[in-house]
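Thread: assembly with ligand

MN 10:42: here's the input set. Chains plus the small molecule as SMILES. Want everything predicted jointly, not piecewise.
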Amino acid sequence: MVVIDIHKEHQEIWNYLSEVPDPEIPIINLVELGVIRNVEKQNESLIITITPTYTGCPAKKLFEDLIREKLIEKGFEDITINTVLSPAWNTDWLSEATKAKMMAEGISPPTDDNKVVICPKCKSENTKRLSQFGSTPCQSFHSCNDCLEPFNYFKCHR
Ligand SMILES: [Zn+2]
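BT 11:07: finished. Tokens for the full assembly:
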């Protein structure tokens, strides 16, 4: 019974963390982004292990504050956030479901080595890059040669 309760509580904490949006792509939460690596509870103390997205991201420093803020809001007081940098975060950690969600929201998800960038509107692979940087440094700005839709592409990062 105790084991079940611990699992239930862990699930609850994961659920709370999935309420924290990625500061750069708010349609994706930190759990979907793969930033949260582990959740542990020792007595009343919560230990969250995170691997921030790449170091060039200005969002990096925000993650810790956002997580802390959410957990305090949920009534936790004793929160430790550990950062693990190895293995480094990479776009392979995005699940297919998360990529599909990005596509549905008009952001082209990372593809293998950035070889093919797919238009989120018409799914055409006939696209061109307009700018190396999109609305954030993690993204680049593209347009579709078929439907002419301009869109952001979440760059593949390994
Ligand atoms: Zn298109």
